[in-house]
Design goal:
Two copies of one chain form a homodimer. By secondary structure, chain A is an alpha/beta fold. The first copy, chain A, folds into two domains: about 1-170, Rossmann fold (3-Layer(aba) Sandwich); about 185-270, Pantoate-beta-alanine ligase, C-terminal domain (Pantoate--beta-alanine Ligase, Chain: A,domain 2, 2-Layer Sandwich). In chain A, about 35% of the residues lie in helices and about 20% in strands. In chain A, the strands form two sheets. A six-stranded parallel β-sheet of chain A has the order 1-4-3-2-6-7, sandwiched between helices. Chain A has a three-stranded antiparallel β-sheet with strand order 8-9-10, with helices on one face. In chain A, strand 9 (about 255-265) and strand 10 (about 265-275) form a beta hairpin. In chain A, helix 6 (about 120-135) packs across helix 7. Chain A is globular and about 55 Å long. Strand 5 (about 105) of chain A pairs antiparallel with strand 5 of chain B.
């Protein structure tokens, strides 16, 4: 496994690479969720590339870019053990040199929820992924379902810009108590960690309400909201169309329960697919 | 030569195509300037693709999208005669289907001059070219120097998004009296056509002033402005850095004289490189 730092090195390494090629974009600090993506990519492709880049464009000025967990040596070991062929780990000055001004704007799919709480976040995600797709030119790219709005944004961008990559989305990997794996879970103190699974319970309660026949989204959301007790503080809890991230008033198919809650200075996100039977 | 209408057809036609591959993006209504691009692409590449698409995203609501010259059958004949291998001529609904929301925003390079007179124009140019580059994946793409700010925008976007295409820029092709070839010249009535070369004379006068030692941009521009007499009405006349399209107060190298003038309801653009000798 080689580790390279520039688009030119990626192109040189991949000239003549066996196809299909799978890309797993990451911000490092790998957990079992990332490794599930790598395993799937390894199973489905002749060549597997992972990128490791903490993307400053997708962090707001008061967010956790500086303290975001970094574990590059351990990440490289895990990627090698998982059978990755090439790691692309550019530095910030390579990705955004002086004079860089271009942005990829995904439009309305990125405006609500995470987009409202993190202005510019999805422009940053769309821009960096467009760059990664242009550099690596994979047939498939792998993402976790936990970042559901990111997936919706990237499906929109890939389709709109004719990028020609298939996005493969794998189910959220969870701790035994239901907490979705996230590199940011490392920020939680023991008391916060113990309270954290309530976010997933809230989403499950929404999905249960719909399974029991509730079709009014706000009544279903109210059933979930009772789970979000202190120390959790709701950031948002809603039912959306998973492709557009437009809120649904009456729950149809497809639908997705989404939620975010603060624990101290950490904000967690999660989501749960809803099966609305006719 | 094949004519295809969708990204999937382009990919199928180009699978296994001999490399390098050159792309000539056009809006049709081909003139000798386009054919010079095609000839160069044919000379430098094993495979040549031309696109023909009048891009509504780069026209403002009160601009000439509807009446822009269209001559598809004649264009196809000329492209075939020039040795093009594949023509990509998508319709608007293929490029911008319902739900399309993504935009590529080039930033400051596209904000002044044409960008100020045509809000959204360079987002439209950047978006459609990013799509064409993603679909065709050329090693080289060919553009005319007449649209100098478009070239600066696309150099910025290609570099920023790691698109990995070399932009080849060919000199403006002119009528014997100096008028730059443009599909929009067809809009001019005989009196306007007779007056039109004054725009190029104005830019030449700026370049002459600099060759004669003038380094103050506004004094050089004033030397050009005297050429812009009625019926021409100045839209802008300036000296810029050709990479950033920032105005220059003191003329350094590189520098570009740029100008635009109205003739009736038609607005012409042109530019002239400036050689500032030390």
């Amino acid at each position: 496994m080689r580790v390279v730092r520039t688009p030119a090195e990626v192109r040189a390494e991949l000239a003549g690479a066996e196809r299909p090629l799978g890309l797993v974009p990451t911000m490092g600090a790998l957990h079992a969720g990332h490794l599930a993506l790598i395993r799937r990519a390894r199973a489905e492709n002749a060549t597997v590339v992972a990128s490791v880049f903490v993307n400053p464009l997708q962090f707001g000025p008061n967010e956790d870019f500086e303290r975001y967990p970094r574990a590059f040596d351990s990440d490289v070991t895990q990627l090698r053990d998982a059978g990755v062929d090439l790691v692309y780990a550019p530095d910030v000055a390579t990705m955004y040199p002086p004079g860089f001004t271009t942005a990829v704007d995904p439009g309305s799919v990125g405006e609500r929820y995470e987009g409202a709480l993190r202005p510019g976040h999805f422009r940053g995600v769309a821009t960096v992924c467009t760059k990664l797709f242009a550099t690596v030119r994979p047939e498939r790219a792998y993402f976790g379902a936990k970042d559901a709005q990111q997936v919706a944004v990237l499906q929109r961008v890939v389709s709109d810009l004719d990028i020609g990559v298939e996005l493969v989305v794998l189910p959220t990997v969870r701790e035994p108590d239901g907490l979705a794996l996230s590199s940011r879970n490392a920020y939680l103190d023991p008391g916060e960690r113990a309270a954290a699974p309530a976010l997933h319970r809230a989403l499950d309660a929404i999905a249960d309400a719909v399974r029991s026949g509730e079709r009014d989204a706000q009544r279903a959301v109210a059933r979930g909201r009772v789970e979000l007790r202190p120390p959790l503080r709701e950031a948002y809890l809603d039912v959306v169309d998973p492709r557009t991230f437009a809120p649904e008033a009456q729950i149809g198919a497809p639908a997705l329960a989404i939620g975010s809650a603060w624990l101290g200075t950490t904000r967690l996100i999660d989501n749960e697919p809803i099966e609305a039977r006719a």
